[in-house]
Design goal:
Keywords: Membrane, Transmembrane, Transmembrane helix. This protein is of the alpha/beta class. The protein contains nine helices and eight strands. It is rod-shaped and about 120 Å long.
Length: 340
């Protein structure tokens, strides 16, 4: 789950110890009152009996003072122990959450397929960032392609892969291209590493059909044995769950996200991505391209600025070292383009 240090309650103030001067003054006052009352109401016989007189005059007030002082001190000690335990537990939670927030995954390889496909992954990314930075993505990509569905004409952005073929053939080709881009790093992994594949597919196909196509293309690519990874929630929560529960494992997480021929295609963009992530605590054989810190779902610019500042403190990264700000993504393949 996301790290929220601002939801941790503030530290409780420690109780003020009993004031010694006040309590000593109270003792002297009670002794004086005890002597005065004993002298006033004591009989002549009692007054002549010195030890008994002074024991009664000073002993009773001293006993009452000791009893009250003991109760007050016991109350102070109890409050102090409770407050100290609470503050220590709070510090432990802050340390634990800070460590969770500083966790990061290595990005070993990636592949991207969009309507802006270039001759290489670098060209595709450069074209996307250039158009998005200039605010031209929606105007020049989403409105460029037209597709006929029955009697309606819709505009959308499509991956230029077998556009005249059924969706099963297109998905197979998309998988093949993604696997081709990341194959080298997958084959270089140590033999004792497990490959976990997270499939997030938005296409008019059943889950069984998607898994069958994935297995076929995986075997055709000659990739090492892999197993499907099931996250409790889709999207960014899957990476969040991996950071929380699998950060110590000798394993990699391959996230494959594809959006192909969505049910409501009007003003949508087809896309396909493959992201190979590894735990930096256990993976040392390969040099990562970058580090992916815990993702956050950003809803407004104020929240974005606050989380950027927090992550910069955790990672020791300065603004001048960040060519692009951190983005908050609503999902892996959503319609909306993240604003940075």
């Amino acid at each position: 789950m996301p790290v929220r240090l601002n939801t941790i309650p503030d530290a409780e103030p420690y109780p003020v110890p009993p004031a010694r001067i006040k309590w000593l003054t109270a003792l002297l006052l009670m002794l004086s009152v005890g002597v005065a009352l004993t002298s006033l109401f004591a009989s002549d016989e009692l007054a002549k009996n010195g030890p008994y007189f002074w024991g009664l005059a000073c002993g009773v007030p001293a006993f009452i003072w000791s009893l009250v002082a003991s109760v007050r001190w016991l109350f102070f000690i109890t409050q102090y122990i409770r407050t100290d335990a609470w503050n220590k537990r709070r510090e432990e939670v802050i340390l634990q959450e800070t460590r969770r927030g500083r966790r990061a995954l290595q990005i070993l390889s990636f592949s991207v397929q969009t309507a802006l496909n270039g001759d290489s992954v670098a060209e595709t990314i450069t074209a996307f960032l250039a158009r998005h930075h200039n605010g031209l993505y929606a105007q020049q990509v989403l409105n460029t392609y037209a597709d006929l569905r029955g009697e309606d004409t819709v505009r959308r952005s499509v991956i230029p892969v077998l556009t005249n073929k059924p969706v099963t053939g297109r998905l197979s080709e998309v998988f093949s291209r993604l696997f081709s881009d990341i194959r080298l790093q997958l084959t270089r992994l140590p033999d004792d590493f497990h490959i976990n594949v997270l499939l997030e597919i938005d296409a008019p196909l059943s889950g069984a059909s998607v898994r069958t196509i994935w297995q076929d293309e995986w075997q055709k690519a000659g990739l090492p044995e892999a197993r499907l990874f099931s996250a409790p929630e889709p999207g960014l929560a899957a990476v969040d769950d991996w950071l929380d529960n699998h950060i110590q494992e000798k394993a990699v997480l391959l996230v494959i996200s594809v959006r192909l021929e969505p049910k409501n295609p009007e003003r949508t963009a087809e896309s396909a991505t493959a992201l190979l992530l590894a735990n930096r605590l256990t993976q040392t054989a390969l040099t990562p391209l970058a580090l992916l810190h815990r993702p956050e779902c950003i809803t407004d610019t104020e929240m974005m600025a606050a989380h950027q500042a927090l992550h910069r403190r955790w990672t020791g990264c300065r603004c001048s070292q960040m060519p692009y700000p951190v983005c908050g993504l609503p999902n892996w393949t959503g319609n909306s383009v993240p604003r940075c």
